[in-house]
Write a structure and sequence with these properties.
Elements lengths: L5 H6 L7 E5 L2 E4 H22 L5 E5 L4 H13 L2 E4 L6 H10 L4 E4 L1 H7 L14 E3 L3 H10 L16 E7 L7 E6 H12 L7 E4 L6 H14 L2 E4 L5 H11 L3 E5 L2 H6 L14 E5 L3 H11 L3 E3 L10 E2 L11 E2 L5 E4 L21 H4 L1 E5 L13 H7 E2 L2 E10 L5 E6 L3 E4 L2 E4 H8 L7 E8 L5 E8 L8 H9 L12 E5 L13 H6 L7 E3 L8 E2 L2 H13 L9
Parallel strand pairs: 1-10, 3-4, 3-5, 4-7, 5-6, 9-10, 9-11, 11-12, 12-13, 24-25
Antiparallel strand pairs: 1-2, 7-8, 14-15, 16-17, 17-19, 18-19, 19-20, 21-22, 23-24, 25-26, 26-27
Length: 558
Protein backbone atom coordinates (compact mmCIF):
# COMPACT_ATOMS: atom_id res chain seq x y z
CA UNK A 1 0.00 0.00 0.00
CA UNK A 2 1.38 3.42 -0.98
CA UNK A 3 2.17 5.94 1.71
CA UNK A 4 -0.57 8.60 1.79
CA UNK A 5 -0.01 12.07 0.37
CA UNK A 6 -2.04 15.27 0.30
CA UNK A 7 -2.55 14.70 -3.43
CA UNK A 8 -3.93 11.20 -2.79
CA UNK A 9 -6.36 12.51 -0.19
CA UNK A 10 -7.56 15.06 -2.74
CA UNK A 11 -8.09 12.31 -5.30
CA UNK A 12 -10.24 10.48 -2.76
CA UNK A 13 -12.57 13.53 -2.54
CA UNK A 14 -13.21 13.78 -6.30
CA UNK A 15 -16.84 12.69 -6.01
CA UNK A 16 -17.53 13.95 -2.48
CA UNK A 17 -20.52 16.32 -2.70
CA UNK A 18 -20.54 17.20 1.00
CA UNK A 19 -19.56 20.77 1.99
CA UNK A 20 -15.81 21.22 1.85
CA UNK A 21 -15.03 24.94 1.99
CA UNK A 22 -17.16 27.86 3.20
CA UNK A 23 -16.10 31.49 2.89
CA UNK A 24 -18.36 34.45 3.54
CA UNK A 25 -21.42 33.85 1.32
CA UNK A 26 -19.88 31.14 -0.87
CA UNK A 27 -19.62 27.38 -0.51
CA UNK A 28 -17.77 24.62 -2.38
CA UNK A 29 -18.29 20.89 -2.02
CA UNK A 30 -15.16 18.80 -1.65
CA UNK A 31 -15.65 17.67 -5.25
CA UNK A 32 -15.72 21.32 -6.34
CA UNK A 33 -12.62 22.06 -4.24
CA UNK A 34 -10.79 19.26 -6.07
CA UNK A 35 -11.96 20.57 -9.44
CA UNK A 36 -10.82 24.13 -8.65
CA UNK A 37 -7.51 22.75 -7.39
CA UNK A 38 -7.10 20.83 -10.65
CA UNK A 39 -7.45 24.11 -12.55
CA UNK A 40 -4.71 25.66 -10.41
CA UNK A 41 -2.50 22.62 -10.99
CA UNK A 42 -2.77 23.12 -14.74
CA UNK A 43 -2.15 26.85 -14.34
CA UNK A 44 0.94 26.27 -12.21
CA UNK A 45 2.33 23.88 -14.81
CA UNK A 46 1.76 26.57 -17.47
CA UNK A 47 3.50 29.22 -15.38
CA UNK A 48 6.40 26.86 -14.83
CA UNK A 49 6.74 26.20 -18.55
CA UNK A 50 6.58 29.91 -19.37
CA UNK A 51 9.22 30.87 -16.84
CA UNK A 52 11.52 27.92 -17.35
CA UNK A 53 12.57 28.23 -13.72
CA UNK A 54 13.55 25.44 -11.37
CA UNK A 55 12.84 24.40 -8.69
CA UNK A 56 9.03 24.40 -8.89
CA UNK A 57 8.52 26.81 -5.96
CA UNK A 58 5.41 28.98 -5.71
CA UNK A 59 5.41 31.83 -3.20
CA UNK A 60 1.96 32.69 -1.86
CA UNK A 61 1.42 36.09 -0.23
CA UNK A 62 -2.30 36.17 0.57
CA UNK A 63 -4.77 36.41 3.40
CA UNK A 64 -7.03 33.43 4.14
CA UNK A 65 -9.05 33.46 0.94
CA UNK A 66 -10.33 30.50 -1.11
CA UNK A 67 -7.68 31.10 -3.75
CA UNK A 68 -5.02 30.26 -1.14
CA UNK A 69 -6.70 26.89 -0.54
CA UNK A 70 -7.00 26.17 -4.26
CA UNK A 71 -3.34 27.04 -4.77
CA UNK A 72 -2.26 24.84 -1.85
CA UNK A 73 -4.18 21.87 -3.16
CA UNK A 74 -3.34 22.66 -6.79
CA UNK A 75 0.33 22.58 -5.88
CA UNK A 76 -0.19 19.20 -4.22
CA UNK A 77 -1.66 17.79 -7.44
CA UNK A 78 1.02 19.43 -9.59
CA UNK A 79 3.98 18.38 -7.46
CA UNK A 80 4.86 22.00 -6.74
CA UNK A 81 6.22 23.45 -3.49
CA UNK A 82 4.25 26.22 -1.78
CA UNK A 83 6.29 28.86 0.05
CA UNK A 84 4.00 30.48 2.61
CA UNK A 85 4.97 34.16 2.81
CA UNK A 86 4.18 36.08 5.97
CA UNK A 87 2.56 39.48 5.20
CA UNK A 88 3.62 40.90 8.58
CA UNK A 89 7.23 40.82 7.36
CA UNK A 90 8.21 43.87 5.38
CA UNK A 91 10.96 45.32 3.25
CA UNK A 92 14.29 43.50 3.24
CA UNK A 93 12.91 40.73 5.46
CA UNK A 94 10.20 39.82 2.95
CA UNK A 95 12.64 40.23 0.08
CA UNK A 96 15.05 37.80 1.70
CA UNK A 97 12.31 35.19 2.30
CA UNK A 98 11.39 35.14 -1.38
CA UNK A 99 14.95 35.07 -2.71
CA UNK A 100 16.19 32.52 -0.17
CA UNK A 101 13.50 30.00 -1.11
CA UNK A 102 14.04 30.32 -4.87
CA UNK A 103 10.44 31.26 -5.62
CA UNK A 104 9.77 30.78 -9.32
CA UNK A 105 6.63 32.87 -9.08
CA UNK A 106 4.77 34.80 -6.38
CA UNK A 107 0.98 34.65 -6.18
CA UNK A 108 -0.51 37.65 -4.41
CA UNK A 109 -3.23 40.31 -4.59
CA UNK A 110 -3.27 44.09 -4.87
CA UNK A 111 -2.37 44.53 -1.20
CA UNK A 112 0.52 42.09 -1.45
CA UNK A 113 1.74 43.78 -4.63
CA UNK A 114 2.15 46.99 -2.67
CA UNK A 115 4.33 45.14 -0.14
CA UNK A 116 6.49 43.81 -2.97
CA UNK A 117 6.89 47.16 -4.71
CA UNK A 118 10.51 48.27 -4.78
CA UNK A 119 11.94 44.96 -3.55
CA UNK A 120 14.84 43.32 -5.39
CA UNK A 121 13.61 39.76 -5.89
CA UNK A 122 16.36 38.62 -8.25
CA UNK A 123 17.76 35.24 -7.35
CA UNK A 124 21.08 33.58 -8.14
CA UNK A 125 20.22 33.50 -11.87
CA UNK A 126 19.81 37.27 -11.85
CA UNK A 127 16.12 37.20 -12.74
CA UNK A 128 13.15 38.12 -10.58
CA UNK A 129 10.14 35.79 -10.33
CA UNK A 130 6.97 36.98 -12.03
CA UNK A 131 4.36 38.35 -9.64
CA UNK A 132 0.87 37.05 -10.45
CA UNK A 133 -1.99 39.10 -9.03
CA UNK A 134 -5.05 36.96 -8.39
CA UNK A 135 -7.55 39.82 -8.36
CA UNK A 136 -6.68 40.82 -11.92
CA UNK A 137 -9.29 39.89 -14.50
CA UNK A 138 -6.59 38.29 -16.63
CA UNK A 139 -5.79 35.83 -13.85
CA UNK A 140 -9.41 34.70 -13.55
CA UNK A 141 -9.51 34.27 -17.33
CA UNK A 142 -6.41 32.07 -17.21
CA UNK A 143 -7.90 29.95 -14.43
CA UNK A 144 -11.08 29.44 -16.43
CA UNK A 145 -9.13 28.66 -19.58
CA UNK A 146 -7.00 26.09 -17.77
CA UNK A 147 -10.03 23.90 -17.15
CA UNK A 148 -10.30 21.40 -14.30
CA UNK A 149 -8.39 18.73 -16.16
CA UNK A 150 -9.05 15.01 -15.80
CA UNK A 151 -9.79 13.38 -12.46
CA UNK A 152 -6.59 12.81 -10.46
CA UNK A 153 -5.10 9.38 -11.15
CA UNK A 154 -3.82 7.97 -7.82
CA UNK A 155 -1.13 6.03 -9.65
CA UNK A 156 0.35 9.14 -11.30
CA UNK A 157 0.20 11.61 -8.44
CA UNK A 158 3.30 13.08 -6.76
CA UNK A 159 4.84 10.71 -4.24
CA UNK A 160 5.32 11.07 -0.48
CA UNK A 161 8.92 12.31 -0.86
CA UNK A 162 7.80 15.28 -3.01
CA UNK A 163 8.66 18.56 -1.29
CA UNK A 164 5.30 20.21 -0.69
CA UNK A 165 5.73 23.13 1.72
CA UNK A 166 8.36 25.56 2.92
CA UNK A 167 7.06 26.97 6.20
CA UNK A 168 9.03 29.82 7.70
CA UNK A 169 9.98 29.85 11.33
CA UNK A 170 12.55 31.83 13.34
CA UNK A 171 15.82 30.27 14.45
CA UNK A 172 18.48 30.57 17.06
CA UNK A 173 20.48 33.06 14.99
CA UNK A 174 17.48 35.28 14.42
CA UNK A 175 17.51 34.54 10.67
CA UNK A 176 14.23 33.00 9.45
CA UNK A 177 14.50 29.41 8.28
CA UNK A 178 12.26 27.61 5.81
CA UNK A 179 11.19 24.22 7.15
CA UNK A 180 10.87 21.50 4.53
CA UNK A 181 7.65 19.47 4.59
CA UNK A 182 7.07 16.66 2.13
CA UNK A 183 3.66 15.45 1.03
CA UNK A 184 4.17 12.32 3.09
CA UNK A 185 4.86 14.18 6.33
CA UNK A 186 1.99 16.59 5.75
CA UNK A 187 -0.37 13.68 5.22
CA UNK A 188 0.91 11.71 8.22
CA UNK A 189 0.64 14.68 10.56
CA UNK A 190 -2.80 15.59 9.24
CA UNK A 191 -3.96 12.02 9.79
CA UNK A 192 -2.93 12.26 13.45
CA UNK A 193 -5.15 15.33 13.81
CA UNK A 194 -7.98 13.95 11.68
CA UNK A 195 -8.81 11.14 14.11
CA UNK A 196 -10.56 13.77 16.27
CA UNK A 197 -13.05 14.70 13.52
CA UNK A 198 -15.84 13.19 11.43
CA UNK A 199 -17.40 14.36 8.18
CA UNK A 200 -20.09 16.07 10.27
CA UNK A 201 -17.63 18.46 11.93
CA UNK A 202 -17.21 22.07 10.84
CA UNK A 203 -13.72 23.48 11.44
CA UNK A 204 -13.25 27.25 11.86
CA UNK A 205 -9.96 28.41 10.32
CA UNK A 206 -9.01 31.99 11.23
CA UNK A 207 -5.30 31.44 11.82
CA UNK A 208 -3.10 32.32 8.80
CA UNK A 209 -2.55 29.64 6.19
CA UNK A 210 1.17 30.40 5.97
CA UNK A 211 1.46 28.86 9.46
CA UNK A 212 1.66 25.13 10.12
CA UNK A 213 -1.00 25.36 12.83
CA UNK A 214 -3.72 26.31 10.34
CA UNK A 215 -2.61 23.68 7.84
CA UNK A 216 -1.97 20.64 10.01
CA UNK A 217 -4.53 21.24 12.76
CA UNK A 218 -7.31 22.41 10.47
CA UNK A 219 -7.26 22.45 6.65
CA UNK A 220 -5.37 19.20 6.02
CA UNK A 221 -7.12 17.45 8.90
CA UNK A 222 -10.45 18.39 7.33
CA UNK A 223 -9.32 17.02 3.97
CA UNK A 224 -8.40 13.68 5.53
CA UNK A 225 -11.56 13.39 7.67
CA UNK A 226 -14.06 14.91 5.25
CA UNK A 227 -15.01 17.69 7.67
CA UNK A 228 -15.95 21.14 6.39
CA UNK A 229 -13.69 24.18 6.70
CA UNK A 230 -14.95 27.69 7.38
CA UNK A 231 -12.28 30.09 6.19
CA UNK A 232 -11.94 33.52 7.77
CA UNK A 233 -9.94 36.16 5.88
CA UNK A 234 -8.21 37.18 9.12
CA UNK A 235 -8.85 36.61 12.79
CA UNK A 236 -11.44 38.91 14.38
CA UNK A 237 -12.42 38.76 18.05
CA UNK A 238 -15.72 40.52 17.42
CA UNK A 239 -16.51 38.36 14.40
CA UNK A 240 -15.66 35.04 16.08
CA UNK A 241 -18.95 34.21 17.80
CA UNK A 242 -21.17 35.41 14.92
CA UNK A 243 -19.12 33.24 12.57
CA UNK A 244 -19.22 30.04 14.61
CA UNK A 245 -22.97 30.46 15.07
CA UNK A 246 -23.64 31.24 11.42
CA UNK A 247 -21.79 28.20 10.12
CA UNK A 248 -22.41 25.81 13.01
CA UNK A 249 -18.69 25.37 13.73
CA UNK A 250 -17.73 22.54 16.07
CA UNK A 251 -13.98 23.26 16.45
CA UNK A 252 -11.35 25.93 16.01
CA UNK A 253 -7.56 26.14 16.34
CA UNK A 254 -5.51 29.06 17.62
CA UNK A 255 -1.99 30.30 18.29
CA UNK A 256 -0.69 32.82 20.81
CA UNK A 257 -3.03 35.42 22.26
CA UNK A 258 -6.19 34.64 20.32
CA UNK A 259 -8.04 33.58 23.47
CA UNK A 260 -7.01 36.81 25.19
CA UNK A 261 -8.53 38.83 22.36
CA UNK A 262 -11.74 36.82 22.55
CA UNK A 263 -11.95 37.34 26.30
CA UNK A 264 -11.49 41.09 25.83
CA UNK A 265 -14.89 41.22 24.10
CA UNK A 266 -17.51 42.22 26.73
CA UNK A 267 -19.21 39.23 28.29
CA UNK A 268 -22.77 38.48 27.21
CA UNK A 269 -25.36 36.01 28.57
CA UNK A 270 -25.66 34.04 25.31
CA UNK A 271 -21.97 33.15 24.83
CA UNK A 272 -22.72 29.42 25.12
CA UNK A 273 -25.20 29.56 22.28
CA UNK A 274 -23.10 27.72 19.70
CA UNK A 275 -22.09 24.22 18.57
CA UNK A 276 -18.37 24.39 19.44
CA UNK A 277 -17.15 21.19 21.08
CA UNK A 278 -13.47 21.96 21.71
CA UNK A 279 -10.45 23.98 20.64
CA UNK A 280 -6.77 23.15 20.17
CA UNK A 281 -3.91 25.63 20.32
CA UNK A 282 -0.71 26.79 21.94
CA UNK A 283 0.63 29.52 24.19
CA UNK A 284 -2.56 30.68 25.90
CA UNK A 285 -2.12 31.33 29.61
CA UNK A 286 -3.71 28.90 32.09
CA UNK A 287 -5.94 31.74 33.29
CA UNK A 288 -7.20 32.48 29.77
CA UNK A 289 -7.86 28.82 29.12
CA UNK A 290 -9.92 28.47 32.29
CA UNK A 291 -11.78 31.73 31.68
CA UNK A 292 -12.56 30.79 28.07
CA UNK A 293 -14.05 27.48 29.22
CA UNK A 294 -16.07 29.25 31.92
CA UNK A 295 -17.52 31.80 29.55
CA UNK A 296 -18.03 29.77 26.39
CA UNK A 297 -18.33 26.26 27.81
CA UNK A 298 -15.63 24.99 25.43
CA UNK A 299 -12.77 22.73 26.61
CA UNK A 300 -9.33 24.10 25.65
CA UNK A 301 -6.49 21.72 24.79
CA UNK A 302 -2.88 22.81 24.38
CA UNK A 303 0.29 21.05 23.40
CA UNK A 304 3.79 21.58 22.07
CA UNK A 305 4.88 21.17 18.49
CA UNK A 306 6.63 23.04 15.75
CA UNK A 307 6.82 23.22 12.00
CA UNK A 308 9.79 20.85 12.19
CA UNK A 309 7.48 18.26 13.85
CA UNK A 310 10.40 16.48 15.51
CA UNK A 311 9.09 16.84 19.08
CA UNK A 312 5.40 16.65 19.95
CA UNK A 313 4.12 17.05 23.51
CA UNK A 314 0.39 16.68 24.08
CA UNK A 315 -1.94 17.23 27.04
CA UNK A 316 -3.18 14.07 28.71
CA UNK A 317 -5.66 13.53 31.57
CA UNK A 318 -4.22 14.99 34.75
CA UNK A 319 -1.96 17.55 33.06
CA UNK A 320 -1.33 20.35 35.60
CA UNK A 321 -2.43 23.86 34.73
CA UNK A 322 0.41 25.52 32.83
CA UNK A 323 2.20 22.31 31.83
CA UNK A 324 2.56 21.23 28.21
CA UNK A 325 1.70 17.60 28.85
CA UNK A 326 3.68 14.47 28.01
CA UNK A 327 5.52 13.39 24.84
CA UNK A 328 3.36 11.72 22.23
CA UNK A 329 3.78 7.96 21.98
CA UNK A 330 6.95 7.08 20.10
CA UNK A 331 8.73 10.35 20.99
CA UNK A 332 11.64 9.97 23.42
CA UNK A 333 11.89 13.50 24.82
CA UNK A 334 14.45 14.57 27.41
CA UNK A 335 15.54 17.78 29.12
CA UNK A 336 19.26 18.07 28.43
CA UNK A 337 22.04 20.47 29.28
CA UNK A 338 22.93 22.07 25.92
CA UNK A 339 26.58 22.39 26.97
CA UNK A 340 27.26 18.90 28.34
CA UNK A 341 24.45 16.86 26.82
CA UNK A 342 23.64 15.45 30.24
CA UNK A 343 20.11 15.09 31.49
CA UNK A 344 18.87 17.77 33.85
CA UNK A 345 17.47 17.10 37.31
CA UNK A 346 13.78 16.55 37.95
CA UNK A 347 11.98 19.79 38.69
CA UNK A 348 10.92 20.45 42.26
CA UNK A 349 7.68 22.43 42.49
CA UNK A 350 6.26 24.11 45.59
CA UNK A 351 2.64 23.91 46.64
CA UNK A 352 1.73 26.70 44.22
CA UNK A 353 3.41 24.96 41.29
CA UNK A 354 6.40 27.31 41.20
CA UNK A 355 9.78 25.88 40.23
CA UNK A 356 12.21 25.89 43.15
CA UNK A 357 15.35 24.51 41.43
CA UNK A 358 15.50 26.27 38.04
CA UNK A 359 19.28 26.05 37.61
CA UNK A 360 19.29 22.29 38.13
CA UNK A 361 16.05 21.51 36.26
CA UNK A 362 15.81 23.79 33.23
CA UNK A 363 17.44 22.59 30.06
CA UNK A 364 16.77 22.27 26.36
CA UNK A 365 13.86 20.15 25.16
CA UNK A 366 15.46 17.42 23.03
CA UNK A 367 14.08 14.54 20.98
CA UNK A 368 16.51 11.65 21.46
CA UNK A 369 14.96 9.43 18.78
CA UNK A 370 13.31 12.01 16.55
CA UNK A 371 16.07 13.51 14.39
CA UNK A 372 14.86 11.39 11.48
CA UNK A 373 11.44 13.05 11.61
CA UNK A 374 13.03 16.40 10.83
CA UNK A 375 13.16 16.90 7.06
CA UNK A 376 15.58 19.80 7.27
CA UNK A 377 15.63 23.46 6.42
CA UNK A 378 15.75 24.65 2.84
CA UNK A 379 19.18 25.84 1.71
CA UNK A 380 20.54 26.02 5.24
CA UNK A 381 22.89 23.14 6.16
CA UNK A 382 24.32 25.06 9.11
CA UNK A 383 20.90 25.28 10.71
CA UNK A 384 20.31 21.58 10.01
CA UNK A 385 23.52 20.73 11.83
CA UNK A 386 22.59 22.92 14.80
CA UNK A 387 19.27 21.13 15.20
CA UNK A 388 20.56 17.58 14.80
CA UNK A 389 23.51 16.93 17.06
CA UNK A 390 24.74 13.59 18.37
CA UNK A 391 21.81 11.81 16.78
CA UNK A 392 19.26 13.96 18.65
CA UNK A 393 16.94 16.78 17.65
CA UNK A 394 17.54 19.97 19.69
CA UNK A 395 14.47 22.19 19.70
CA UNK A 396 16.10 25.46 20.82
CA UNK A 397 13.41 25.69 23.50
CA UNK A 398 13.86 25.39 27.24
CA UNK A 399 11.78 23.33 29.61
CA UNK A 400 11.73 21.15 32.68
CA UNK A 401 10.12 17.86 33.67
CA UNK A 402 8.33 17.33 36.98
CA UNK A 403 8.26 14.18 39.09
CA UNK A 404 5.11 12.95 37.32
CA UNK A 405 6.71 13.22 33.89
CA UNK A 406 4.91 16.36 32.76
CA UNK A 407 6.97 18.80 30.72
CA UNK A 408 6.80 22.55 31.29
CA UNK A 409 7.93 25.29 28.90
CA UNK A 410 10.60 27.70 30.21
CA UNK A 411 11.53 29.98 27.36
CA UNK A 412 13.85 29.99 24.36
CA UNK A 413 17.54 29.50 24.09
CA UNK A 414 18.16 31.87 21.23
CA UNK A 415 17.98 35.53 20.49
CA UNK A 416 14.58 35.61 18.88
CA UNK A 417 11.19 36.77 20.04
CA UNK A 418 7.65 35.46 19.87
CA UNK A 419 5.06 38.21 20.08
CA UNK A 420 1.37 37.43 19.66
CA UNK A 421 2.18 34.10 18.02
CA UNK A 422 4.74 35.51 15.56
CA UNK A 423 8.48 34.76 15.67
CA UNK A 424 11.00 37.34 14.54
CA UNK A 425 14.61 38.35 14.90
CA UNK A 426 15.82 40.87 17.46
CA UNK A 427 18.67 41.69 15.08
CA UNK A 428 16.26 42.80 12.38
CA UNK A 429 14.64 45.26 14.77
CA UNK A 430 18.06 46.49 15.91
CA UNK A 431 19.09 47.28 12.36
CA UNK A 432 16.01 49.45 11.92
CA UNK A 433 16.34 51.29 15.25
CA UNK A 434 20.01 51.90 14.50
CA UNK A 435 18.85 54.38 11.85
CA UNK A 436 17.37 56.60 14.57
CA UNK A 437 19.73 59.53 15.18
CA UNK A 438 21.20 59.99 18.64
CA UNK A 439 21.94 56.68 20.42
CA UNK A 440 25.41 55.22 20.08
CA UNK A 441 24.17 51.67 20.19
CA UNK A 442 21.03 49.57 20.51
CA UNK A 443 20.14 46.15 21.89
CA UNK A 444 16.75 44.53 21.31
CA UNK A 445 15.60 41.55 23.37
CA UNK A 446 12.50 39.81 24.59
CA UNK A 447 10.98 40.23 28.01
CA UNK A 448 8.02 38.19 29.30
CA UNK A 449 4.50 39.14 28.31
CA UNK A 450 2.10 38.96 31.28
CA UNK A 451 -0.22 36.70 29.27
CA UNK A 452 1.90 34.63 26.88
CA UNK A 453 5.05 34.82 24.82
CA UNK A 454 7.27 37.88 24.71
CA UNK A 455 7.23 41.65 24.52
CA UNK A 456 9.88 43.72 22.76
CA UNK A 457 12.33 45.77 24.82
CA UNK A 458 15.12 47.97 23.48
CA UNK A 459 18.12 49.41 25.33
CA UNK A 460 19.54 52.61 23.84
CA UNK A 461 23.11 53.56 24.69
CA UNK A 462 23.95 57.22 25.19
CA UNK A 463 20.37 58.47 24.88
CA UNK A 464 20.01 60.12 28.28
CA UNK A 465 16.59 61.05 29.67
CA UNK A 466 17.05 64.68 28.65
CA UNK A 467 18.18 63.78 25.13
CA UNK A 468 15.59 61.08 24.41
CA UNK A 469 12.57 62.39 22.51
CA UNK A 470 9.92 59.68 22.84
CA UNK A 471 7.53 61.35 20.41
CA UNK A 472 10.26 61.62 17.80
CA UNK A 473 11.16 57.96 18.35
CA UNK A 474 7.54 56.89 17.86
CA UNK A 475 7.30 59.04 14.74
CA UNK A 476 10.49 57.46 13.42
CA UNK A 477 9.16 53.91 13.99
CA UNK A 478 5.89 54.72 12.24
CA UNK A 479 7.85 55.82 9.19
CA UNK A 480 9.91 52.65 8.75
CA UNK A 481 8.37 50.57 5.92
CA UNK A 482 10.27 47.41 6.88
CA UNK A 483 9.26 47.43 10.55
CA UNK A 484 7.03 44.40 11.09
CA UNK A 485 3.61 44.97 12.58
CA UNK A 486 4.64 43.41 15.90
CA UNK A 487 8.22 44.71 16.12
CA UNK A 488 7.83 48.14 17.79
CA UNK A 489 9.38 48.12 21.31
CA UNK A 490 6.93 48.07 24.19
CA UNK A 491 9.73 49.11 26.59
CA UNK A 492 12.74 51.38 26.01
CA UNK A 493 15.59 51.45 28.54
CA UNK A 494 18.13 54.28 28.46
CA UNK A 495 21.64 53.16 29.46
CA UNK A 496 25.02 54.84 29.68
CA UNK A 497 26.76 51.79 28.21
CA UNK A 498 25.55 48.48 26.84
CA UNK A 499 26.96 45.43 28.68
CA UNK A 500 29.56 43.38 26.85
CA UNK A 501 31.32 40.05 27.37
CA UNK A 502 35.00 39.64 28.04
CA UNK A 503 35.64 39.50 24.29
CA UNK A 504 33.73 42.71 23.68
CA UNK A 505 30.57 41.11 22.31
CA UNK A 506 27.20 42.48 23.29
CA UNK A 507 25.81 40.61 26.32
CA UNK A 508 22.03 40.78 26.50
CA UNK A 509 21.68 38.41 29.45
CA UNK A 510 21.74 41.10 32.17
CA UNK A 511 19.37 43.24 30.14
CA UNK A 512 16.85 40.42 29.86
CA UNK A 513 17.24 39.54 33.55
CA UNK A 514 16.51 43.08 34.73
CA UNK A 515 13.88 43.90 32.10
CA UNK A 516 12.01 47.00 33.40
CA UNK A 517 13.11 46.46 37.04
CA UNK A 518 16.12 48.77 36.78
CA UNK A 519 17.17 52.17 38.13
CA UNK A 520 17.83 53.28 34.55
CA UNK A 521 15.09 55.40 32.97
CA UNK A 522 12.50 53.18 31.23
CA UNK A 523 9.82 54.37 28.86
CA UNK A 524 6.89 52.09 27.99
CA UNK A 525 3.53 51.70 26.29
CA UNK A 526 0.81 50.71 28.79
CA UNK A 527 -1.15 49.31 25.84
CA UNK A 528 0.06 48.12 22.48
CA UNK A 529 0.01 51.00 20.04
CA UNK A 530 -0.05 53.67 22.74
CA UNK A 531 2.66 56.38 22.79
CA UNK A 532 5.71 55.84 24.96
CA UNK A 533 5.69 57.47 28.40
CA UNK A 534 7.99 57.27 31.44
CA UNK A 535 7.54 54.15 33.57
CA UNK A 536 6.78 54.73 37.25
CA UNK A 537 6.88 52.52 40.34
CA UNK A 538 3.09 52.23 40.24
CA UNK A 539 3.34 50.84 36.70
CA UNK A 540 5.80 48.18 37.84
CA UNK A 541 3.54 47.19 40.72
CA UNK A 542 0.58 46.90 38.38
CA UNK A 543 2.60 44.65 36.04
CA UNK A 544 3.56 42.37 38.93
CA UNK A 545 -0.10 41.97 39.82
CA UNK A 546 -0.98 41.22 36.19
CA UNK A 547 1.71 38.53 36.01
CA UNK A 548 0.42 36.98 39.23
CA UNK A 549 -3.17 36.92 37.96
CA UNK A 550 -2.06 35.15 34.79
CA UNK A 551 0.06 32.58 36.67
CA UNK A 552 3.30 33.83 35.11
CA UNK A 553 4.86 35.42 38.19
CA UNK A 554 7.84 33.04 37.95
CA UNK A 555 8.87 34.85 34.74
CA UNK A 556 9.09 38.26 36.40
CA UNK A 557 12.55 39.87 36.42
CA UNK A 558 14.62 40.15 39.55
Amino acid sequence: MREPTIAAHLAARTEDDRPGLLFEDRQWSWAEVVAESGRRARLLHALRAEGGLEPFHVGVLLENVPEYVFLLFGAALAGATVVGLNPTRRGAALERDIVHTDCGTVMTDAGGSRLLAGLDLRGAAGTAPPVVTIDDQSYQQRVTAAGPGSEPDPERLPGPATLYLLVFTAGSTGTPKAVRMTQGRAARTAADSAVAFTDRDVLYCAMPLFHGNALLANLFAALVSGASVVLRRRFSASGFLPDVRRYGCTYFNYVGRALSYLLAVPESPDERDHRLKWTLGSEASPRDRAEFTRRFGVPVFEGYGSSENAVVISPVPGTPSGALGKPREGFDVAILDPETGGEKATAVLDDDGRLTNPEEAIGEIVGRNTAGRFEGYYNNPEADAARTRAGCYWTGDLGYRDADGFIWFAGRTADWLRVDGENFSAGAVERIIDRFPGPRGVAVYGVPDPVTGDQVMAALEGAGPDAFDAAAFDHFLAGQPDLGTKWAPRFVRLVDALPVTGTGKLDKAPLRAAAWETPDPVWWRPQAGAPLRPMEDADRAELRQLFARNERAALLPG
